[in-house]
Amino acid sequence: MLGRGAARALGALRGVRGGAPPARSLGLSRRLLSFEKVLDKDHSLPKPCWGKDMRRLFDQFTKKCEDGSWIQLASYEQISAQRSQDFSAFIHAYFPSASEVINKEKLSQAQLFTRGFEDGMGFEYVMFYNKAEKRIVCVFQGGPHLQGMPGFFHGGATATIIDATVGMNAIVSGGIVMTANLNINFKSPIPLCSTVLINSQLDKIEGRKLFVSCKVQSIDGKILYTEATSLFIMLEPKKKKYDLKEAVLNPLPA
Ligand SMILES: CCCCCCCC(=O)SCCNC(=O)CCNC(=O)[C@H](O)C(C)(C)COP(=O)(O)OP(=O)(O)OC[C@H]1O[C@@H](n2cnc3c(N)ncnc32)[C@H](O)[C@@H]1OP(=O)(O)O
C-alpha cells in the first residue's frame, strides 16, 4: 500500500483518500440535486468482489504512485453538491434545447452509468494517471451483467469502459469535454468476468480537439482485445464556468 509520502502527495492533489475524513465529517451536505446520495464511497478502492488479478494490479499501480509519477483517480457516483449545481448550470446553458426536454423528476434517480451496478456485477475499475506520459491506465474487471455473446463481454460494455477511460484522459487535460468520435476495432472477444488493462494515451491537442487512443489487453499483455481512437471536443472555453478537471482530481472539496 501507499507510503506516507505518497499518501500525502495524493492527498494534496485530491484532498481525500489516505485517511481523509469522509464527506459528512467535513460538514458537506449529503443532499445533491435535491436527492440523497452518499458522497463518500470511493468506488475505486478494493472491495471483496475484486478478483485476485484486479487486486494485484491495484497494488502494483498503487506502488507506482509512491514517487508521485502516477496518481490514482478516485471515483464517486456524484461530485460535490456545489459542483453538481455549477456543472448542471453550465451544461444547461451550453445545451439549452436539451435542457428543455430533460425530465427534472427523473434526474433525481440519475447516477454515473458505470457506477450504477451492484458491486461485482457490472463495471469494477480503477484508473491511474501519469501526467508526464499523458497516460491513463484503467484496470477493469467486468461483471456477469455485462454479457453479450454467451461467456463474453457485450461490445457496448467494452465501448463504455473505453469511453470512460479515454474520456478521463481528455478531461484531465482539457476540462469539460465531450466525445465527438469513437472508433473501435474489436480484435478478440473478452472473456466475461476477466480482468483487463486499458492503456490510453493522449496523442495530441489541436485547439479544442483532443485525440486520445487506447488498447485493451490481457493483463499479461499477450492478447490485444480491442483498440480505439477517439476525438474529444473541449466545450467553448469562453463559456466555461466549471472546472471539471479540478473536480476529477479533487472530488471532495476540503
Ligand atoms: C466521468 C466519466 C467520463 C466519461 C466520458 C464520457 C463522455 C461522453 O460519452 S459524452 C456523450 C457522447 N457525446 C455527445 O453526446 C456529444 C454530442 N456532440 C456535441 O454535443 C457536439 O458535436 C460537440 C460538443 C462534440 C462539438 O460541438 P461544438 O462545441 O459546437 O464544436 P464544433 O464547432 O461543432 O466543432 C469543433 C471542431 O471539432 C470538429 N468536430 C466536431 N465533431 C467532430 C467529429 N465527430 N469528427 C471530426 N471532427 C469533429 C469540427 O469540425 C470543428 O473543427 P474545426 O475547429 O477545425 O472547424
From TrEMBL:
Catalyzed reactions: (5Z,8Z,11Z,14Z)-eicosatetraenoyl-CoA + H2O = (5Z,8Z,11Z,14Z)-eicosatetraenoate + CoA + H(+); (9Z)-octadecenoyl-CoA + H2O = (9Z)-octadecenoate + CoA + H(+); tetradecanoyl-CoA + H2O = tetradecanoate + CoA + H(+); octanoyl-CoA + H2O = octanoate + CoA + H(+)
Topology versus the membrane: Peripheral membrane protein
Pfam families: 4HBT (PF03061)
Localization per record: Cell projection, Ruffle membrane; Cytoplasm; Mitochondrion inner membrane; Mitochondrion intermembrane space
Domain Thioesterase: 151-222
Enzyme kind, highest EC tier: hydrolase
UniProt keyword annotations, A-Z: Apoptosis, Cell membrane, Cell projection, Cytoplasm, Fatty acid metabolism, Hydrolase, Lipid metabolism, Membrane, Mitochondrion, Mitochondrion inner membrane, Transit peptide
EC identifiers of the protein: 3.1.2.2
Primary site of residence: membrane
InterPro entries per UniProt: HotDog_dom_sf, THEM4/THEM5_acyl-CoA_thioest, Thioestr_dom
Protein name: Acyl-coenzyme A thioesterase THEM4
